[in-house]
Amino acid sequence: MATTMKDVARRAGVDVSTVSLAINNDPRIRRETRERILAVAQELGYRKNHLARGLRSGKSFTIGAVVGYSSGFWDEVLAGAQSVLAEREYHLLLDYAPSDARREDTQIEALKAKRVDGFLIAPSDSDPAAGAEQSTPYYRALQEEAMPFVFVDRFVPGLEADYVAADNFAGSRAATRHLLRLGHKRIAYVFSPHRMSTVHRERLEGYQSVLREAGLEPVLWEAVRARSERSQEGMEATRELLADKAGEGVTAILAATDSTAMGALRALFDAGCPVPQKMAVIGFGGTSFSEYLQPPLTTVTLPMRALGEQAARILLERIEGSTAPPRHVVLGTQLTVRASCGATLKR
Fold first, then answer.
1. Greatest Cα-to-Cα distance within the chain, rounded to the nearest angstrom
2. Can you tell me the distance from the alpha carbon of 207 to that of 211, in angstroms, rounded to the nearest whole number?
3. What local confidence, expressed as pLDDT, does residue 63 receive?
4. How far apart are CA 337 and CA 162, in angstroms?
5. Residue 114 CB burial class (10 angstroms; 0-12, 13-18, ≥19)
6. Most buried residue, 11, 128, 199, 297, by most Cβ within 10 Å?
């Protein structure tokens, strides 16, 4: 016969409600008491009945994650979220979709059908011409349904909702200032205009603000042809930069993402343009592959795990009934300097 909470309570000398609090990691119970009860539960071979737990609480103890495509960045962010959720025995249910076929309303509805208790959402890259309102109706619908959600990495301007994001503006300023200190005057920003989420708008604005303060002209270089891979967009855009008269005199590239920078490095290699001797390159992201590129890539390192952890904590607070005003958490970034921009220009 299966061991019950009553059996654990009897052996531990406490009541059943105390056992329940201990097994569910409730913060109201003292650590010593929880550890003693869990030791008894393990000794007796107690196994939690998750179905009964869900029926009693009316929850599924499952969180839906609505993000774009699988990547090193999202692997880290979601690992951070899962580490927090696991402490409360919540599970993360992912819905990935290719960026060129992504429909957030479809993703959200599919996860709602699984009875998730809340959402971690990364709003998709938006078409600047369409405006922010193109993506808000289904978020507003979630708010009307009182379905908790937290935006991660990016947010929707004009929508009052919780979000956790990195300080992309400050990170971009730090990268641009670093290139100026190395002596670069013509710095190109390579980006994809069709991927202009709040993340990419802030990176662009940070770059522009530093050059304006220095009295220098920005060199905005757009990847005009949308590709499935950012690296391919970066490669093609950099090839065009090298071939175009407007790119003359450019000695440094700040890329919108590490993947974009990877493509730029390939184009520079193919063109026989040595990095960093003739062209410095900085990426954005801090993904694990950046240090293994040749040369190793200087990058703005984002707090990937912390983004997921903070978002998960806020979401759990909402699920538990918090009615506090929307929280806007912005986490700092770090410039990780490597060989791709290590040489001071020789004039």
1. 83
2. 7
3. 94
4. 32
5. exposed
6. 297
pTM of the predicted structure, to 2 decimals: 0.81
Q: Give the mean pLDDT of 279-307.
A: 95
69: Cα within 13 Å, side-chain hemisphere: 9
Pick from 264, 239, 267: nearest CA to 253: 264
Whole-angstrom Cα distance, residue 147 to residue 150? 10
Other Cβ atoms less than 10 A from the Cβ of 332: the count is: 11
Q: What is the DSSP letter of 345?
A: P
pLDDT in tens, 198-227: 999 999 999 999 999 999 999 999 988 888
CA 49 to chain centre: 33
Token code pair at residue 310: 């903070």
- Given a cut of 60, is residue 51 above it in pLDDT? no
List the 334-336 sheet strands across, edge first.
Answer: 219-222, 187-191, 252-255, 280-285, 298-301, 334-336
Q: CA-CA distances (angstroms) from residue 10 to 4, 6, 45, 49?
A: 10, 6, 14, 18
